[in-house]
Design a protein that fits this description.
Keywords: Membrane, Transmembrane, Transmembrane helix. This protein is mainly alpha-helical. It has five helices and no strands. α1 runs antiparallel to α3.
């Protein structure tokens, strides 16, 4: 196994938590939707403090998640730009992680867009 492959595998393992971050975001969206439906079904007024609290806690959690993903982003950048790995498995997994993070907006979407840019750089 070459040095580039080893760094590629390490970077993909370091970016693996993005799977859980995507699942967490989807559960947040469904929970918020369930809250709105339950409030409207009971003819109650929406409490903006509850919604604002949930949204702010999600934003803080995404900021912490971005800090956790930083080592993986740095290793993936090193692997793609310095070691010039262009193998199919690396670009496919990079593309998969980038789409997961793009769909996890607003903060983790920035990391997803960066991975998408990095994946396009590996094609060259």
């Amino acid at each position: 196994m070459g040095k580039a492959n080893a760094f590629g595998i390490v970077s993909m393992i370091a970016l693996a938590p993005s799977l859980f971050y995507f699942a967490s975001f989807i559960s947040f969206v469904f929970a918020l939707g369930a809250y709105v439906v339950s409030v409207s079904a009971n003819a109650e007024a929406l409490d903006p403090k509850i919604i604002a609290g949930e949204v702010s806690s999600t934003l803080v959690q995404q900021t912490l998640n971005l800090v956790v993903l930083l080592p993986g982003l740095i290793i993936a950048t090193f692997t793609a730009l310095k070691l010039k790995i262009g193998q199919g498995w690396f670009t496919k997994v990079l593309n998969f992680y980038s789409w997961l993070l793009i769909l996890t907006f607003p903060i983790l979407m920035l990391a997803g867009l960066y991975l998408k840019w990095l994946r396009n750089k590996t094609d060259v």
